[in-house]
Structures are given as structure tokens and as C-alpha cells.
From TrEMBL:
One GO cellular component, as annotated: plasma membrane
Keyword Cell wall biogenesis/degradation among record annotations: no
Protein name: Flagellar motor switch protein FliM
Signal peptide region: none
PANTHER family registered for this protein in UniProt: FLAGELLAR MOTOR SWITCH PROTEIN FLIM (PTHR30034), YOP PROTEINS TRANSLOCATION PROTEIN Q (PTHR30034:SF6)
Limits of the Flagellar motor switch protein FliN-like C-terminal domain: 256-325
Source organism of the structure: Terribacillus aidingensis
NCBIfam families: fliM_switch
Main location: other
One biological process term in Gene Ontology: bacterial-type flagellum-dependent swarming motility
Family of the protein in this entry: Belongs to the FliM family.
Amino acid sequence: MAEEVLSQNEIDALLSAISSGEMDADELKQDEKNKRVKTYDFKRALRFSKDQIRSLTRIHENFARMLTTYYSARLRTFVQIAVASVDQVPYEEFIRSIPTMTILNTYSLSPLEGKILIEYDPTVAFAMLDRTLGGQGSNVNKINNLTEIETTLMTQLFESSMENLKVAWQSLEDVDPVLEDFEINPQFLQMVSPNETVVVVTLNSTIGETTGMINICIPHVVLEPIVSKLSIHYWMQAPSNKEGNESEWRDLTAGIQRASVDVKAILGETSIDVEELVNLREGDVLMLNQSIDAPLQVKVDNQVKFKAQPGKKKNRMAIQIMEEIDTGGEENE
């Protein structure tokens, strides 16, 4: 909790008031003691520390980035999704905060118990649906009379995006998100008791020219078995399994080394027409585009990788590598 810092003039005025008897030092001490007592609302029990909330924020920032990429490719329009806030509130307060008619999806996260709820602002949901059907992404809010086809398309769109949540949560737990229910009235969804603490992740979403919110509601019962993994100490210790990682890298390296590739030494090339090809006979000479003194090109899987010179080794044709060719591959930024 931040403390108020007094200026020098305020300190002088306070000392002067105590000296003149205008203020009593004992009363100040009593006031200071009273300030240490804070009202605690048991209906808003905070079950997650700031450290754990920060960890959830990092995870869902990664989820938001992956959703941005996924929906950009799927909808073929400008998409921007980012975390706006991560709060812990009673479930009842979350339900009251969302519209009376909205797009609600509940997902199970096997092997974890309980379900999570994802609420899409209708403006965002209908913009996605419009783009899926080939439109411009306009918002036509007709949530009261969704057709079966529209409901199916929305369900498929939202369900396929949950692969990104699975990847984002891998640092916590290997979960398998499965869509359990699609609803438009929050009053019909009672996942946990009204006073149960839930974590609400709010995502600011822009689909084309349409903006809105996506809310992810995660009950405490879902996170309880893995809450220890949200600690900063767990994140610091997580990479300590060096032996397992090194074993995986060794297996991967061995697999790559056993892979076969085609290697060709090109003596030269030329082009002839079909008539000349048909009339070729033994003893005919073809003029290549390669000088006898020039190094040969060595191709690995049709990519030029080396320069070499021809020769013999143990009465067999051979080449000697003279130079490696830099192919100028793309570098990671």
C-alpha cells in the first residue's frame, strides 16, 4: 500500500499545531492505530496472490497473440486482440457485469475439474460470422433469433480456436479444451456458487472496424490443482529438467542425422531439341555450359551447397569439396 509523503511545510505546520496544543499527540497515535484496521468483504475473498495473477496475465497475453494470428488468417481481415485486465471477483458479480443476451461458451479442460466460460461480445461474434460468410465484417446484432446454421458456424469457429488455449496453457498443464455448451442467456449458466471466486481475463478485440470484449471466466476450482505452478518460483525452476531436455535434443539430433538427402555433382548442363535427342548415337559429343577448369556445383536436395573439383579415389569417380556456398537463408529477427 502506498504511503502519503508530507512536504516540509506540512511537517512544520503539524509540529507547530502539536506545540501550541491545537492537536493532541495521543489522538494522532489513536488515529494511526485506527487506520490499520481495514474492512474485509468475505464475499470478495481474494484467493490468488498478485504473483499468481501476473502469471495468468502472461499466459493469456500469449493466448491473445495466438488468437490474433489465428483469426487474422481465418477471417482474412485486420484482427487485434490484447489483454485489457485480469481480475478476481465473485462469480455472481461477473454474471451481473455481462449483457443479458450475449454469446457464451463453456469448455471443459480435461484432466482439470470444472469448466471455464468464454463470453464474446455480440458485436465481435457477429462480425466474425459475417466475415466467415464472405461479408465485410459488419455488425448485425440479431442474437435473439440465431438460426441453426449461424449457431453451428459460430460454434465451429470458437471451438477450432481453442487449440491456441491448449498451447498457451502448456506451461501450466496439458489440457484438452472441449466445447460443452453454447448459450446466449447468462442466467441459464450456473457453473459455480455465486460467491465462488473466479478469475476474469478481459481481452480487447478488434475485428476489421468492429471492436468489443472477450471475457474468459476461470473458476477457482479449475485452477486449484495447479495453483502452485502459478508461483514465480515454479517459473524460475521449470527449466531445471536439463537432463530430460538434453535427452530430447539428442534423440532429435540423431533422427536428423539418419535422414537421407540427395547429393548431386553437376558436371554441366546443355539444352537440345527433341529431334537431336532422338538422333543421338554412341560417340556423339554434347557441348556443356561448364568450363573444364571451373569448379563443379554440388547440390543437396536441389540446393547448391558446395563447390568441388572432380577426381578419382580407389578407381572410382569422386569429387573433392573446395568451398561451402552461403545460401543467404533468412535470419530470425
